[in-house]
């Protein structure tokens, strides 16, 4: 799966942007701090996955579901994330419903956005690569999962 | 400084309107699947983990900044993060990857101080 160790890193450009958004304007984040936060985020994913997987295993399920992830957050004492996560999931599900209808529209729009982004690509090369590969893979996963569940 | 600010604001407009999350779901799935016991992950769980990771990054950055020493100088440094990992219970799982880093001289100084303060324990 992950052939190179870098595959387990999250894209720096995106992490940096999230950090900047969280902090007050004009705060300088050292390079070392950014790298550390990025690594911490990867470890967080692994930790959350392992907790969530325990809940799934207890319930004798093979597939991790939303409830498992939420239970994991509670176990990890990140209760403060529960509300925002539930809200985000709600919005996300709404979006998924309307997705098929607006698929074509979205693709057209993405093309436009892509050309706009070309200008800033040097700066955020890594980030853009990620975005490109993201959508199709995610849809495949959805199909696989549906088969399993039915 | 100005430049980077402008470009991040532009990004928000491009991705923020339609996209509920900014981290790549595919990469998060790769990390999740690198865990050996995990066989499959449904779409909602994947989305939630990605979103949670974003919240985590914000929370870690902000807590470290607020508790850190760089508030006057408007900086967030590695040591602020290492301190947070050490001091806050919820971030305790990070202590292994965020070890405290200090200068030898500082270490010697603090060692002396500690010995003076709590002699017997050290």
TrEMBL record, chain A:
<dbReference type="GO" id="GO:0008623">
    <property type="term" value="C:CHRAC"/>
</dbReference>
<dbReference type="GO" id="GO:0008622">
    <property type="term" value="C:epsilon DNA polymerase complex"/>
</dbReference>
<dbReference type="GO" id="GO:0006974">
    <property type="term" value="P:DNA damage response"/>
</dbReference>
<dbReference type="InterPro" id="IPR003958">
    <property type="entry name" value="CBFA_NFYB_domain"/>
</dbReference>
<comment type="subunit">
    <text>Component of the DNA polymerase epsilon complex consisting of four subunits: the catalytic subunit POLE and the accessory subunits POLE2, POLE3 and POLE4. Interaction with POLE4 is a prerequisite for further binding with POLE and POLE2. Heterodimer with CHRAC1; binds to DNA. Component of the CHRAC ISWI chromatin remodeling complex at least composed of SMARCA5/SNF2H, BAZ1A/ACF1, CHRAC1 and POLE3; the complex preferentially binds DNA through the CHRAC1-POLE3 heterodimer and possesses ATP-dependent nucleosome-remodeling activity.</text>
</comment>
<dbReference type="InterPro" id="IPR009072">
    <property type="entry name" value="Histone-fold"/>
</dbReference>
<feature type="compositionally biased region" description="Basic and acidic residues">
    <location>
        <begin position="100"/>
        <end position="122"/>
    </location>
</feature>
<keyword id="KW-0238">DNA-binding</keyword>
<dbReference type="GO" id="GO:0031507">
    <property type="term" value="P:heterochromatin formation"/>
</dbReference>
<keyword id="KW-0175">Coiled coil</keyword>
<dbReference type="Pfam" id="PF00808">
    <property type="entry name" value="CBFD_NFYB_HMF"/>
</dbReference>
<dbReference type="InterPro" id="IPR051377">
    <property type="entry name" value="DNA_Pol-Epsilon_Subunit"/>
</dbReference>
<protein>
    <recommendedName>
        <fullName>DNA polymerase epsilon subunit 3</fullName>
    </recommendedName>
</protein>
<dbReference type="GO" id="GO:0031490">
    <property type="term" value="F:chromatin DNA binding"/>
</dbReference>
<comment type="function">
    <text>Accessory component of the DNA polymerase epsilon complex. Participates in DNA repair and in chromosomal DNA replication. Forms a complex with CHRAC1 and binds naked DNA, which is then incorporated into chromatin, aided by the nucleosome-remodeling activity of ISWI/SNF2H and ACF1. Does not enhance nucleosome sliding activity of the ACF-5 ISWI chromatin remodeling complex.</text>
</comment>
<feature type="region of interest" description="Disordered">
    <location>
        <begin position="92"/>
        <end position="150"/>
    </location>
</feature>
<keyword id="KW-0539">Nucleus</keyword>
<dbReference type="GO" id="GO:0006272">
    <property type="term" value="P:leading strand elongation"/>
</dbReference>
<feature type="compositionally biased region" description="Acidic residues">
    <location>
        <begin position="123"/>
        <end position="150"/>
    </location>
</feature>
<keyword id="KW-0597">Phosphoprotein</keyword>
<feature type="domain" description="Transcription factor CBF/NF-Y/archaeal histone">
    <location>
        <begin position="9"/>
        <end position="73"/>
    </location>
</feature>
<dbReference type="GO" id="GO:0046982">
    <property type="term" value="F:protein heterodimerization activity"/>
</dbReference>
Automatic annotation (TrEMBL), chain B:
<feature type="region of interest" description="Disordered">
    <location>
        <begin position="1"/>
        <end position="21"/>
    </location>
</feature>
<dbReference type="GO" id="GO:0046982">
    <property type="term" value="F:protein heterodimerization activity"/>
</dbReference>
<keyword id="KW-0597">Phosphoprotein</keyword>
<dbReference type="GO" id="GO:0003677">
    <property type="term" value="F:DNA binding"/>
</dbReference>
<comment type="function">
    <text>Forms a complex with DNA polymerase epsilon subunit POLE3 and binds naked DNA, which is then incorporated into chromatin, aided by the nucleosome remodeling activity of ISWI/SNF2H and ACF1. Does not enhance nucleosome sliding activity of the ACF-5 ISWI chromatin remodeling complex.</text>
</comment>
<keyword id="KW-0808">Transferase</keyword>
<protein>
    <recommendedName>
        <fullName>Chromatin accessibility complex protein 1</fullName>
    </recommendedName>
</protein>
<keyword id="KW-0548">Nucleotidyltransferase</keyword>
<dbReference type="Pfam" id="PF00808">
    <property type="entry name" value="CBFD_NFYB_HMF"/>
</dbReference>
<dbReference type="InterPro" id="IPR050568">
    <property type="entry name" value="Transcr_DNA_Rep_Reg"/>
</dbReference>
<keyword id="KW-0175">Coiled coil</keyword>
<keyword id="KW-0238">DNA-binding</keyword>
<dbReference type="GO" id="GO:0006338">
    <property type="term" value="P:chromatin remodeling"/>
</dbReference>
<dbReference type="GO" id="GO:0008623">
    <property type="term" value="C:CHRAC"/>
</dbReference>
<dbReference type="InterPro" id="IPR009072">
    <property type="entry name" value="Histone-fold"/>
</dbReference>
<feature type="domain" description="Transcription factor CBF/NF-Y/archaeal histone">
    <location>
        <begin position="22"/>
        <end position="81"/>
    </location>
</feature>
<dbReference type="GO" id="GO:0006261">
    <property type="term" value="P:DNA-templated DNA replication"/>
</dbReference>
<dbReference type="InterPro" id="IPR003958">
    <property type="entry name" value="CBFA_NFYB_domain"/>
</dbReference>
<keyword id="KW-0007">Acetylation</keyword>
<comment type="subunit">
    <text>Heterodimer with POLE3; binds to DNA. Component of the CHRAC ISWI chromatin remodeling complex at least composed of SMARCA5/SNF2H, BAZ1A/ACF1, CHRAC1 and POLE3; the complex preferentially binds DNA through the CHRAC1-POLE3 heterodimer and possesses ATP-dependent nucleosome-remodeling activity. Within the complex, the heterodimer with POLE3 interacts with SMARCA5/SNF2H; the interaction is direct and enhances nucleosome sliding activity by the SMARCA5/SNF2H and BAZ1A/ACF1 interaction. Within the complex, the heterodimer with POLE3 interacts with BAZ1A/ACF1; the interactions are direct.</text>
</comment>
<keyword id="KW-0539">Nucleus</keyword>
<dbReference type="GO" id="GO:0016779">
    <property type="term" value="F:nucleotidyltransferase activity"/>
</dbReference>
């Amino acid at each position: 799966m992950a052939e190179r160790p870098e595959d387990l890193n999250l894209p720096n450009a995106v992490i940096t942007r999230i950090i900047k958004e969280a902090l007050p304007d004009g705060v300088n984040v050292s390079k070392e701090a950014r790298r550390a936060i990025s690594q911490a985020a990867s470890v967080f994913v692994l930790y959350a996955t392992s907790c969530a997987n325990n809940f799934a295993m207890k319930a004798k399920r093979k597939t991790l579901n939303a409830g498992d992830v939420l239970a994991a957050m509670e176990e990890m004492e990140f209760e403060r994330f529960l509300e925002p996560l539930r809200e985000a999931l709600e919005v996300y599900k709404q979006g998924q419903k309307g997705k098929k209808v607006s698929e074509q529209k979205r693709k057209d729009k993405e093309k436009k956005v892509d050309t706009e982004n070309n200008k800033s690509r040097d700066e955020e090369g890594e980030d853009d690569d990620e975005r490109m590969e993201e959508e199709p893979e995610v849809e495949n996963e959805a199909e696989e999962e549906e088969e399993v569940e039915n | 400084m100005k430049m980077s600010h402008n470009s991040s604001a532009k990004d928000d407009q491009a991705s923020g309107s339609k996209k509920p999350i900014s981290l790549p779901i595919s990469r998060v799935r790769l990390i999740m699947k690198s865990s050996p016991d995990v066989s499959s992950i449904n779409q909602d769980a994947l989305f939630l983990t990605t979103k949670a990771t974003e919240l985590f990054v914000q929370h870690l950055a902000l807590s470290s900044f607020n508790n850190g020493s760089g508030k006057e100088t408007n900086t967030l440094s590695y040591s602020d993060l290492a301190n947070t990992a050490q001091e806050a219970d919820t971030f305790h799982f990070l202590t292994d990857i965020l070890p405290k880093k200090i200068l030898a001289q500082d270490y010697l100084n603090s060692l002396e101080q500690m010995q003076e303060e709590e002699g017997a324990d050290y």
